[in-house]
Amino acid sequence: MTDRAATGGRALAEVVAAALDGAARGGLAAGDVAVQLREKDLGGRALRGLAGALREVTRAAGASLFVNDRVDVALAVGADGVHLSGASLSPADARAVAPSLAIAVSAHAPGDLDGLAGLATFAVFGPIRDTPSKRAYGPPVGMGALRAAAARGVPLLAIGGLTAGDVPEIGRAGARGLACIRAVMGAADPAAAAASLGQALAAVPKM
Questions:
Q1: Alpha-carbon separation of residue 6 from 36, 49, 128, 143, 185 (angstroms)
Q2: In which domain, by residue range, is 108 found?
Q3: E strand intervals along 44-176
Q4: Which secondary-structure segment (H or E) carries 182?
Q5: 166 Cβ partners below 8 Å, 6+ apart?
Q6: Number of domains in the chain
Q7: How far apart are the C-alpha atoms of 58 and 144, rounded to whole Å?
């Protein structure tokens, strides 16, 4: 997930390109990697420009691109999907408007996933541990909630203060992968950070 405020002044597209290269070197197939453009303060025109730049980067790497909340921007740049928060369109409405897009959702409790099996392509679930970007959504939910959420039938990516060392545990809890922001966006070497995560994820067969 992107956060251009965490890059230390580096261009977001440059950081994302380095991270995608690192993920590939870490052993992840391009089809197993997605970038979510999550810049909630940007207006439509600025977001469209940034999304276009990331579409070029992700297309070159063979990775998917999801745009946070804005179905119109996702369609305009040829993104693969849209990520819906609680303030967005409902997944059913987004599917009706843009049937070509994959639908990702945010979830913070197992009950948030009720009725979404077969409708949401995947959900980003957490925060599992404490992390600054997720404090507004409440305290960490922990591994027990992740296990309960995984039983709801929607593929999950765990998020929230997680590192490569947490990958085996979130895999045992039922997650299909890991999402992160600062661990890569804020890393001095985004390629190395993504490679480390890629190695950990590639080592868990069921992920």
A1: 15, 19, 20, 27, 6
A2: 4-202
A3: 64-68, 81-84, 102-107, 122-125, 156-158
A4: helix 182-185
A5: 128, 129, 158, 178
A6: 1
A7: 34
Report the alpha-carbon distance of residue 6 to residue 54 in Å, rounded. 17
Residue 26 CA to residue 203 CA, distance in Å, equals 10
Global pTM? 0.94
Rounded CA-CA distance 131/178 in Å is 14
pLDDT of residue 134: 61
* Token pair for 135: 């404090």
Number of neighbouring beta carbons within 10 Å of residue 31: 9
Residue 12, domain member (yes or no): yes
Mean pLDDT by 10 residues, the chain (207 residues): 97 98 96 96 96 98 97 98 90 95 96 94 94 73 96 96 95 96 96 97 85
Within a domain: 207: no
The CATH number of whichever domain residue 64 belongs to comes to 3.20.20.70
pLDDT at 52: 98
Strand pairing of 156-158 and 122-125?
Answer: parallel
Contacts of 162 (CB under 8 A, 6+ apart): 128, 129, 170, 178, 180, 183
Contact in structure between 171 and 201 (CB atoms under 8 Å) = no
Write the CA distances from 148 to 48, 94, 133, 160, integer angstroms.
Answer: 37, 26, 23, 17
Q: In what order do the strands lie in the sheet with 156-158?
A: 34-37, 64-68, 81-84, 102-107, 122-125, 156-158, 177-178
